[in-house]
Amino acid sequence: MTATGATWRNWGRTESVRPLRVERPATADAVQRAVVSAAASGLRIKPVGSGHSFTGIAVAPGVQLDMTALSGVIDADIGTARVTLGAGTRLHELPALLAPYGLALANMGDIDRQTISGATSTGTHGTGLGFGGLATQVVGARIVSGTGELITVSETERPELLPAVRLGLGALGVLVEVTLQLVPRYVLHAVEKPAPLGEVLDGWLDRVRSADHFEFYWFPHTEAALTKTNTRLPGDAPRHPLGRLSRWVDDELLANGLYRGVCALGTATPGVIPGFARQVEKLTGDRDFADFSPKVFVTNRTVRFREMEYAVPLEAVPDAVREVRALIERKGWRISFPIEVRAAASDDNWLSTAHGRATGYIAVHRYFREDPAEYFAAVEAIMRGFGGRPHWGKMHSRDAESLREVYPHFDDFLRVRDELDPERRFGNPYLERVLGP
């Protein structure tokens, strides 16, 4: 199905494009035809997921592939806990799709609007030192190359491509299927409570090492961090979910409704932000509940923002956060969004932000109507001092030359790109910046 392109915008309103045309393939064959047709016309072609990347990684000025129709469960093996999904499957669809098999993702981030292929291709992750990013759960894929060839990649077919294809930035081809290694469905016991920021930073390594999943948020202009500790329990463990009213008050009324209003007010009158942050410090936290993992990992977020996230060595997190705090105080900035801090296991995917090292993640945000440039650039300079690697789907200013310095297999990835997309059929300005021409 082909249509003239309307203007496409990503969720964070940082990127927009009017494609020459939009195609909506429903089969792998249709994707192959679209790629061959684009090549014959001398056009570039790119798939688009949910638009949740803040960078231009999915921008498609030529042919945009809407992958919505390529979704759902294609194959499932309960014995091995492996499920093959259409690449356009949204993460928020997985609980219902996987329930009949009694399976779940081993880990998740706190947003589930992305497609599975978009999430894995950009390095989306959750938190927990025993778990890598979503791409580490990929054990196989089918991908259409720049010449229109349909290639199967798995542990037994072209396994040498797996470290690149699992997290391929959309630069290697169009994913049409993704096979995931899942786990039996499980319950998470969540404990959320405030703690002094200094205490959390001093005990950072102990906290992340002793918990299945630990993260914290710090609102600038306050002295407290909101800590979140999730403990994994069997799928038949007793559940004590949040009540409907409690969840609505905390997650909708306060976290979205009131917060949206204060962010908008703070854009015009920045002086209100520190006082609001101190009120949030008093109102948030102190929740204890247990539910199936997706209902604990995921938070509904409707306040639009822009984000930059950096991955640094795990042990560098306390010093990096302290430097960001000192930066904000020194500059006198009024920052309405919290800083989010998480952790993940080392992995061997070539362009993973956690490649070869246990990793801490530090994410900074700004309301989408505020200019993030000065804040993000200054924080980025701090993170680069710790050997930081930027999240591929979040805002940053790095280029291929500087990224090669922090990725040992950067040139190995480029060699796979040369093989699968020699004419750069899947290229765009963002990929040219971060990978080179």
From TrEMBL:
FAD-binding PCMH-type domain mapped to chain residues: 15-185
GO cellular component: membrane
Gene3D superfamilies from the UniProt entry: 3.30.465.10, 3.30.70.2520, Uridine Diphospho-n-acetylenolpyruvylglucosamine Reductase, domain 2, Vanillyl-alcohol Oxidase, Chain A, domain 4
Protein name stated in the entry: FAD-linked oxidoreductase
MF-aspect GO terms: D-arabinono-1,4-lactone oxidase activity; FAD binding
Source organism, top-level taxon: Bacteria
Species lineage: Bacteria, Bacillati, Actinomycetota, Actinomycetes, Micrococcales
Keyword line: Oxidoreductase
PROSITE patterns in the record: FAD_PCMH
